[in-house]
Amino acid sequence: MMERNSYKKFWLAIVILAIVAITSLVATAWVLNELNRAQNSLMLVDDELEAMQAELATVEIGLNASKELVESLEDTLSNLQANYARLTTGYGYVLRDPSYQEMKDFLKQDETSEQEYLESEYICVDFAADVKANAAKEGIRCAYVVIEYYGGSGHAIVAFDTTDRGLVYIEPQFDWEVVEPEIGQRYYQCVKPPPGHYMAEPDYDDTITRIIVIW
User: Which of 12, 44, 162, 203 is the most buried (most CB within 10 A)?
Assistant: First the structure.
């Protein structure tokens, strides 16, 4: 009877040991599987980190390029400002083309046409030069126009490139407009006096042979 009980206990112990061994194997296999999953997750995280680092490097390169571009633009702007300052030094203004009305307003307040024409002292070239200089003081661009006549004589007037009516010629001795002069026409016939005035025909041939516009 004692031997029989010992035999049962022996096999019971064997079974228990087998269960424990199987349980340990299963537990070990589960742990190993979890470790593999964790390692795979860590590898994925590493890959994502590497991708993010690559993106950050690309962004950093772009930022550096943008900084260099900004610095280059700042240098360019500085040079432009310096050149602008040099161009305007001594003038204090930048010449611009006026509108037609601005031109009329300027001529109305300008006193050049009130000067007296004096042979060999104050003639057409003086009228034109003074109007051009006075326009510049007002920041208005004005051209000095040389008109050559048949036979070698000539005349000087001015012109404004108005923003709304284009190029307008002005007889500065009277502030009268001049219909666009053309080669082959007589100058006095090109002038448009206001009502109540007229342009007398000169005692010389004022047929236009050449027109020089000097800005």
Answer: 162
Give 176-183 contacts, CB < 8 A, sequence gap 24+. 181/147, 181/208, 181/211, 182/208, 183/208, 183/209, 183/210, 183/211
The 10s digit of each residue's pLDDT in 152-194 is 899 999 999 999 999 999 999 999 999 989 999 999 999 999 9
Mark whether 105 and 83 lie in a shared domain: no
pTM of the model: 0.59
In a domain, 15, yes or no: yes
Residues 84 and 105 in one domain: no
For residue 94, is it within any domain? no
Which residue range is the domain that position 156 belongs to?
Answer: 100-214
